[in-house]
Amino acid sequence: MRVAIVGATGAVGHELLRVLESSTLKFGELQLYASPRSAGVKLPFGGQELTVQATPEGAINADLILASAGGSISKEKAPAWVAGGAVVIDNSSAFRYEPDVPLVVPEVNGEAALRHKGIIANPNCTTAVAVVAVAPLHREFGVRRMIVSTYQATSGAGQKGIKELLDQTRVVLGGGEAGAEVFAHPIPFNVIPHIDAFQENGYTKEEMKVVWETRKILGDDSLKISCTAVRIPTLRTHSEAITLELERPATPEQARKLLGRAAGVEVRDDPGAKLYPMPLTASGKYDVEVGRIRSSLVFEGGLDLFVAGDQLLKGAALNAVQIAEYLQEQGALKGRVAG
Ligand code: A2P
């Protein structure tokens, strides 16, 4: 089986290479693509150096394409990749809301991936992190309403987001005044309640992605969801405060027990020992940390929790590779399987 990464030089591309190195996915060849600017760049993979090529105009000679070069590239090129016979797992938002494109988090709705027509969408990073924690609670107790406040890392805006935080922090520490290009305002020592474009209803597109995508992944359009998405000056891992109103009452103990058995979750919840989810501990980890689980003071029988998940991993690269692993396990990926 031949695998290609489009956007291999980006923040998510970098993680895709690392995740593939330790993945159970069996493949014989890995091709790397990015913009023409990166043609010839060498990236390490499995003890070798692979050369990045400019993304071609038409089809790519691969069985599986992991795309992470942004929505406009995916929109423009994915149809040709599919026509050329590849299965595309797309990290952008280009196809997520199309009815015949499955939006997949394998622990939650893996079987939806089997119904693809060439393209499978990887969810928005904030949504992927949230649903890993919320889906088991939804299955057991029935979520009726969900209120989310996010604390999102600068790498959510790619390599350029990471660079702006580091560069502008140095400017401030040097006594200068920080500027902003990637973010709407200077990010050092600030929090910015503005991610993606404002919509007519006053919410941002990032906030509405959480609403639309959580409903699609959980397969429940009746879910009432509201989100406030905030950029904070961290490098990686998105954290989220989540309040749930439930159809059937849950105690924090029941929730802890249930989440302790859930795939993709690490319960980190011992406040007395200063143990709770944080970017510091969740970064680089495959599991999403869940803690601060307590009874809601607003919704009787409901829950408040705090989650922290490495959005470059579970919110992007890891989830994409897990979708591919799932398809291969189900015998649903074409190509010659090596080794
Ligand atoms: P490049 O590094 O050559 O610009 P990030 O999300 O970190 O900003 O990364 C975006 C990824 O998308 C990078 O790998 C980038 O490559 C790639 N990319 C940007 N523009 C194009 C393009 N026109 N064709 C193919 N890949 C692109």
From TrEMBL:
Please list every transmembrane segment annotated in the UniProt record, as residue ranges. Answer: none
> What are the catalytic residues?
C125 (acyl-thioester intermediate), H238 (proton acceptor)
Ranges for domain Semialdehyde dehydrogenase NAD-binding: 2-116
Pathway assignment: Amino-acid biosynthesis; L-threonine biosynthesis; L-threonine from L-aspartate: step 2/5; Amino-acid biosynthesis; L-lysine biosynthesis via DAP pathway; (S)-tetrahydrodipicolinate from L-aspartate: step 2/4; Amino-acid biosynthesis; L-methionine biosynthesis via de novo pathway; L-homoserine from L-aspartate: step 2/3
Highest taxon, organism lineage: Bacteria
> Which reactions fall under this protein's catalytic activity?
L-aspartate 4-semialdehyde + phosphate + NADP(+) = 4-phospho-L-aspartate + NADPH + H(+)
Q: What class of enzyme is it?
A: oxidoreductase
The entry's phosphate-binding residues are: R96
User: Could you say which residues bind NADP(+) here?
Assistant: T9, G10, A11, V12, R37, S38, S155, G156, Q311
Q: Does the keyword Repeat apply?
A: no
* Alphabetic keyword roster: Amino-acid biosynthesis, Diaminopimelate biosynthesis, Lysine biosynthesis, Methionine biosynthesis, NADP, Oxidoreductase, Threonine biosynthesis
The EC number on file is 1.2.1.11
A single GO molecular-function term is: aspartate-semialdehyde dehydrogenase activity
Q: Which residues bind substrate?
A: Q152, R231
Q: Name one GO biological process term.
A: isoleucine biosynthetic process
Sequence similarity: Belongs to the aspartate-semialdehyde dehydrogenase family.
Stored NCBIfam families: asd_B, PRK14874.1
| Assembly with partners or alone | Homodimer.
Which HAMAP family did the record assign?
Answer: ASADH
- Per its database record, what is this protein's job? Catalyzes the NADPH-dependent formation of L-aspartate-semialdehyde (L-ASA) by the reductive dephosphorylation of L-aspartyl-4-phosphate.
Q: Write the protein's name.
A: Aspartate-semialdehyde dehydrogenase
- The gene it comes from is asd
